[in-house]
């Protein structure tokens, strides 16, 4: 599946929003963002600079993101949850934003709850997580 440039930009932007929702950017979050940004084709200097200034950047709008297809939205939500759980805790602001993004993309709530459970269980078990993005690009 070919992602649109807009979807690629929104995917990265969404991950950045999730990462800063708890006002802390830990190494596990940076690693995930780097891996996905690279896979999406973003230049290393661009995403490294973005990561460095993420917590102080007041210009990133935090509206829920609408993707071009349900498949891309579900992939993002799955990866967003994995990112949120990567620091071994998920806070209300992170979960609420991801849930709002699911709602604006008409993602089924039952699917969302199942994915939330899967990500939570994976986080607790310490299992390595594959990113959903990799299966659609």
Topology:
Layout: H1 5-20, H2 27-40, H3 44-52, H4 70-85, H5 92-104, H6 109-125
Helix pairs in contact: 1-2, 1-4, 1-5, 2-3, 4-5, 4-6
Give an account of the 3D structure:
- The chain has 137 residues and is mostly helical.
- The protein has helices spanning 5-20, 27-40, 44-52, 70-85, 92-104, 109-125.
The backbone outline, from C-alpha atoms, is globular
Order of helices and strands: HHHHHH
Rounded to the nearest angstrom, the radius of gyration is: 14 Å
- The average pLDDT score comes to 93
Short description:
This protein is an all-alpha fold and 137 residues long. The protein has six helices and no strands. It has helices spanning 5-20, 27-40, 44-52, 70-85, 92-104, 109-125.
Features:
137 residues, 6 helices
